[in-house]
Amino acid sequence: MVSSRLVSHVSRGRPTSDGGGVRLTRLITPQQGLDPFLMLDEFDSSEASDYLAGFPAHPHRGFETVTYMLDGHMLHEDHLGNRGDLKPGAVQWMTAGRGIIHSEMPQQVAGRMRGFQLWINLPGVEKMKAANYRDLDPEEIPEHALSDALIKVIAGHCQVAGSEDITAGAHVGGATEPLYFDVALGTHATLTLVTPLHHRVLAYVFEGTVSIGAQLIKKNELAQLSHGDSVCLTAGSEPARVLVIGGKPLREPVVHYGPFVMNTAAEIEQAVRDFRSGQLTT
Ligand code: CO
Hints:
By secondary structure, the protein is mostly beta strands. The protein has a single domain, classed as Jelly Rolls. It is built from two helices and 26 strands. Strands 1-22-19-24-17-14-13 form a seven-stranded antiparallel β-sheet, with no helix packed on it. A hairpin with a 6-residue loop joins strand 15 and strand 16. The chain is globular, with a radius of gyration of 18 Å. The mean pLDDT is about 95. Cobalt (II) ion binds near residues 58, 60 and 65.
């Protein structure tokens, strides 16, 4: 290994609400410039009133959304006629492209609802491509199993440093070549994962604690990492779970307005006009 990534910044999310009034924690905002990532929301509540309103029909243009359910049951429906049942462990990979109109509604009136939604930017040349939707059932998410760690490989290639063993994720490739791993570590387990040298890589601890280099990352903390060809994760005195998310920066201008993310203000105005006139998805 040439260089192990270190922690360059640690932050906690901000409580907010979105959709019909769903309470969530926003871990990344478009204003932070964490290219190619635009947004990362975590929802986690056992209070039905926090999530019952769901996300009624709304549009998107110019990027991809990746929804990962840990607990609960949501139904996705979109203008293309897709219906996706999101149950624990399932992933929905949606490429809004030129336009999608969809809803995400809870299919439960009690119990815990927990998961993440990540927004990944698309390069200008792909922002107007046809919309696409993929539903991945839990059994379609490959697992990379080790003696004291289990990695759900949602996107990208998972490889432990020093091993030839590579697990390809459920989603591979694309302009930003995203990595999306749900890493479960046993008590005091240490794991070094290979990461493309120039990818931006983030780690979000959602159970236990994890050390990266000399830095301890607590539960509900997001670590931004320096460049490097690997990241070494060490769990503390209880089992830990951490999302490791990576992507190739696009280095393009980002203009964000609500559910639209384009390169220029004129393209945003066009998106608003297209939505109002019913042309967003045609
Ligand atoms: Co949406």
